[in-house]
Specification:
Layout (H helix, E strand, L loop, with lengths): L4 E6 L4 E8 L2 E9 L1 H5 L6 H23 L8 E7 L3 H18 L3 E5 H7 L24 E6 L4 E8 L3 E7 L5 H11 L6 H9 L16 H7 L6 H16 L6 H26 L4 E5 L6 H13 L3 E3 L3 H4 L4 H12 L18
Parallel strand pairs: 1-4, 4-5, 6-9, 9-10
Antiparallel strand pairs: 1-2, 2-3, 6-7, 7-8
Helix pairs in contact: 2-3, 4-12, 5-6, 5-8, 5-9, 6-9, 9-10
The structure holds 5'-O-[(R)-(carboxyoxy)(hydroxy)phosphoryl]adenosine (KG4) and zinc ion (ZN).
């Protein structure tokens, strides 16, 4: 098998990610984030993200080449995220990738961001085992259910083949899970990004203190939205609970609110993911996305999956958050499977389906 040398570009949200792989070997994974620029707005501002990508791209490519010792001329292909994501942000990466592919006279692979997250798990990381204590040895096997949770997406997928058979089982109907963490943090007066802040506050709280709603989990919802998620009702329930306390002149027990909110999110995510594994008789669950940094989510997923006879795979966090290595890895898989490159007709598609 020949192992293609691929450079991947990821600019779908606020991370400018450049990754270089040779087949399934990770050579570099460079990430520049504009998160700090968004902090004062309490969320990612698309225009700010797009401009930041434009500034960060060239230095990030140079850094990835330097780290891997690869010369541009050695590349076999260029890969880029063409969607889903923020349109303006995607366009910066797509434009750069086209320019690079044309100037190097190399094939260009436009790939789906969500499928890219799954591809993070094909990389051969056994030599880096300490990076990912929760990742069993070996790599992605089929079929696998994937739960992807970040500030921009929350989706459950059934993966039979990364290079051509990925089925979207369900996704969020409103807010992404990370977005819910960010919004609830804000209403508790905690800074952005809210996930780590809620996590910290929750450590001292009681997850059973307040019974917050589990979105789309009633029997009537499960019939139609078995694998879909909804977090806006939960966010509203937390807001109402806090308002009532304040109106009564009582203090807000932030640790208990944070722990109870986190438990509601984790419970729904894990319950639906395990249901998908059982329904489809799939003994593997892959986790991805920035919210996977949540220790409680990892622990509950690992415990409940064990009860269900399901193996949980969690790539190292640097490959769970948005990055270019996963995009390069997916393109390398496509090349090794003999798939044709993209024509140059593609653009950025903010709602690109899997
Ligand atoms: O994948 P990611 O880095 O990129 C974006 O989606 O932009 O995910 C960031 C999201 C944010 O919403 C952040 O609050 C959330 O992941 N997050 C967490 C934790 N760490 C980051 N959510 C819950 N618990 C955490 N420990
Ligand atoms: Zn992502």
């Amino acid at each position: 098998r020949t192992e293609p040398l691929v450079l991947g570009i990821e600019t779908s949200c606020d991370e400018t990610g450049i990754g270089i792989v040779r087949g399934r070997t990770l050579l570099s994974n460079t990430i520049a984030s504009s998160m700090e620029e968004h902090a004062r707005y309490g969320g990612v501002v698309p225009e700010v993200a797009a401009r930041a990508h434009l500034e960060a791209l060239q230095p990030a490519i140079d850094a990835a080449l330097a780290e891997s010792g690869v010369a541009l001329a050695d590349l076999d292909a260029v890969a880029v995220t063409s969607g889903p994501g923020l349109a303006g942000a995607l366009m910066v990466g797509v434009g750069a990738a086209k320019a690079l592919a044309v100037s190097l006279e190399r094939p260009l692979y436009a790939v789906n961001h969500l499928v890219g997250h799954i591809a993070a798990d094909v990389l051969d990381l056994d030599a880096h085992a300490s990076l990912s204590p929760d990742r069993p040895q070996g790599k992605l096997e089929y079929p696998t259910v994937a739960l992807l949770v970040s500030g921009g997406h929350t989706a459950l997928l059934l993966v039979r083949d990364l290079t051509g058979d990925v089925e979207l089982l369900g996704e969020t109907m409103d807010d992404a899970a990370g977005e819910a963490f960010d919004k609830v943090a804000r209403l508790l007066g905690l800074p952005y990004p809210g996930g780590p802040e809620i996590d910290r506050a929750a450590a001292a709280g009681d997850p059973a203190a307040i019974a917050f709603p589990r979105g789309l989990s009633r029997a009537s919802d499960m019939a139609k939205h078995r694998y879909d998620f909804s977090f806006s009702g939960l966010k509203t329930a937390v807001a109402r609970w806090v308002e009532q306390r304040e109106a009564a002149g009582e203090p807000i027990p932030i640790p208990d609110v944070a722990a109870s909110f986190r438990e509601a999110v984790v419970d729904v995510l894990v319950t639906k993911a395990i249901a998908a594994c059982r329904d489809h008789d799939v003994p593997r669950l892959l986790l991805g996305g920035g919210v996977i940094a949540n220790r409680r989510l990892r622990d509950v997923a690992i415990a409940r999956a064990a009860e269900a006879g399901v193996e949980v795979r969690i790539p190292p966090l640097s490959l769970c958050t948005d990055n270019g290595a996963m995009i390069a890895a997916l393109a390398a898989e496509l090349i090794m499977a003999g798939r044709a490159p993209s024509t140059f007709a593609f653009g950025a598609d903010s709602t690109l389906p899997v």
